[in-house]
């Protein structure tokens, strides 16, 4: 709350009245010294309009001093109140910009310096916010980096231990099943079932490793990254993988998102679809880049109005978020035992010259 500056006017009135009386007294003494008159007789015996000269001089001095003091005090009070109001807004966190001080005096210099200080405070507030935002962004980056490093560590450990053991088990089961002629039929079925379980576990492990340790483009074009990923995956998976990829001019951020969406889709397909064939297509139609992932797996029921938000439907929520980040759309088509098709449609933004 601002406090009223009520005493400053009275202070100037008192000082002005005292100054007026002092000046009148000095002038009276000088006059009496020059005129050789008795001071008492002059002040109290001589009169003007039946009013003693001394009383007239005193009352006139007080009146003039009071008027002058009030005028000066009122002016100073108004200037101080204006400055106080300005500082009160600054104290509340507001930084007035449409403020002009026109009077050219000492107060103007003070007000100019206060405005300069206010601008500096506003700049510092902006710098503090910038530093805070950068710190939050840096903390988020550090957090994401720590998560990424931990995921890579887990992926390495799983690959070096569990994945290698599953591969060894798969080789052993294949060798055993090649020599099952002397085994009973029940044993043959059980061994075949174990082999299938090992193969499924390998697929789950590869999907998990792909999810934990996603391959990065690392400066490569999207077409190169997709071909390398699918080539490596086709060597490790017991399924047919086909692809048709066109070279499309896209911004790096869009390419990274599309590549990560493809990885997520492949990971979900390997873990849930039980597919024997996967097709990947990337092509340009008009001003859109269209990515399709098609499988012949078990499929799922796409609920009306639910779409990708339905729990268990390949975990497509993260893909939906990535598609939204690049201004695209995600379409999911699937029926039970009919496979699934995921289509990502992204507009190709053309940069205009001079923009």
From TrEMBL:
UniProt xrefs under SUPFAM superfamilies: ATPase domain of HSP90 chaperone/DNA topoisomerase II/histidine kinase (SSF55874)
Segments forming domain Histidine kinase:
153-350
Q: Name one GO molecular function term.
A: ATP binding
Q: What species is this protein from?
A: Bacillus cytotoxicus (strain DSM 22905 / CIP 110041 / 391-98 / NVH 391-98)
Report which superkingdom the organism of origin falls in.
Bacteria
Gene3D superfamilies xrefs: 1.20.5.1930, Histidine kinase-like ATPase, C-terminal domain
- The EC number(s) given in the record are 2.7.13.3
What's one Pfam family the UniProt record gives for this protein?
A: HATPase_c
- Record-linked SMART domains: HATPase_c
**Protein name according to UniProt:** Sensor histidine kinase
Q: Where are the transmembrane segments?
A: 12-33, 53-76
Is Ligase set as a keyword in this record?
Answer: no
Main localization category = membrane
One cellular component (GO) term of this entry: plasma membrane
* Subcellular locations according to the entry: Cell membrane
Q: What keywords are assigned to this protein?
A: ATP-binding, Cell membrane, Kinase, Membrane, Nucleotide-binding, Phosphoprotein, Transferase, Transmembrane, Transmembrane helix, Two-component regulatory system
Q: Which reaction does it catalyse?
A: ATP + protein L-histidine = ADP + protein N-phospho-L-histidine
Q: How does it sit in the membrane?
A: Multi-pass membrane protein
């Amino acid at each position: 709350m601002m406090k009223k500056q009520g005493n400053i006017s009275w202070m100037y009135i008192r000082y002005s009245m005292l100054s007026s009386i002092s000046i009148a007294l000095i002038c009276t003494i000088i006059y009496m010294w020059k005129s050789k008159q008795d001071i008492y007789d002059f002040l109290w015996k001589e009169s003007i309009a039946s009013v003693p000269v001394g009383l007239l001089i005193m009352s006139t001095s007080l009146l003039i001093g009071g008027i002058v003091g009030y005028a000066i005090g009122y002016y100073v009070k108004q200037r101080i109140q204006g400055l106080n109001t300005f500082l009160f807004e600054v104290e509340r966190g507001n930084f007035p910009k449409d403020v002009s001080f026109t009077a050219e005096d000492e107060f103007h210099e003070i007000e100019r310096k206060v405005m300069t200080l206010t601008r500096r405070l506003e700049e510092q507030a902006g710098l503090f916010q910038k530093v805070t935002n950068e710190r939050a962004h840096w903390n988020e980056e550090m957090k994401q980096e720590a998560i990424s490093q931990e995921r890579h560590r887990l992926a390495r450990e799983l690959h070096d231990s569990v994945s290698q053991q599953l591969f060894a088990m798969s080789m052993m089961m294949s060798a055993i099943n090649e020599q099952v002629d002397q085994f009973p039929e029940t044993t043959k079925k059980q061994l075949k079932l174990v082999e299938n379980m090992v193969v499924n576990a390998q697929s789950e492990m590869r999907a998990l490793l792909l999810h934990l340790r996603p391959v990065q483009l690392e400066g490569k074009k999207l077409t190169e990254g997709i071909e390398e990923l699918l080539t490596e995956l086709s060597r490790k998976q017991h399924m047919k993988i086909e692809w048709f990829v066109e070279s499309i001019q896209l911004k790096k951020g869009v390419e990274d998102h599309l590549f990560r969406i493809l990885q997520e889709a492949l990971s979900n397909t390997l873990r849930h679809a039980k597919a024997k064939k996967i097709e990947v297509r990337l092509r340009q139609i008009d001003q859109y880049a269209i990515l399709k992932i098609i499988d012949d797996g078990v499929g799922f029921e796409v609920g009306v109005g639910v779409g990708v938000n339905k729990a268990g439907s390949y975990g497509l929520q993260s893909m939906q978020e990535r598609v939204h980040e690049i201004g695209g759309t995600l379409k999911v088509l699937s029926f039970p035992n009919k496979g699934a098709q995921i289509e990502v449609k992204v507009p190709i933004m053309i940069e205009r010259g001079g923009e």
